[in-house]
User: Which sequence fits this backbone?
């Protein structure tokens, strides 16, 4: 399992928070649509937006590997 770390410092969202948000979703066939849903659940990338690319990378990684999801 991956180590937990803060991804979004503005909203204090961790890697595990993003993984948990993905786990709640019924399907994830579109990364950008999934990103929008994760934003709604976690509020990540709604402050300064500096974590946008990191969050997308994590979502893509989790969707491809299904690790922790």
Assistant:
């Amino acid at each position: 399992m991956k180590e937990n770390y803060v991804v979004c410092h503005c909203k204090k969202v961790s890697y595990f928070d993003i993984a948990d948000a993905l786990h709640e979703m019924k399907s994830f066939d579109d990364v950008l649509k999934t990103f929008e849903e994760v934003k709604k659940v976690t509020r990540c990338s709604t402050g300064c937006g500096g974590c946008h690319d990191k969050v997308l990378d994590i979502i893509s990684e989790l969707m491809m590997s299904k690790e922790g999801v």
Q: What stands out?
A: Residues 6-65 form a domain with the Arc Repressor Mutant, subunit A fold (CATH 1.10.10.1100).
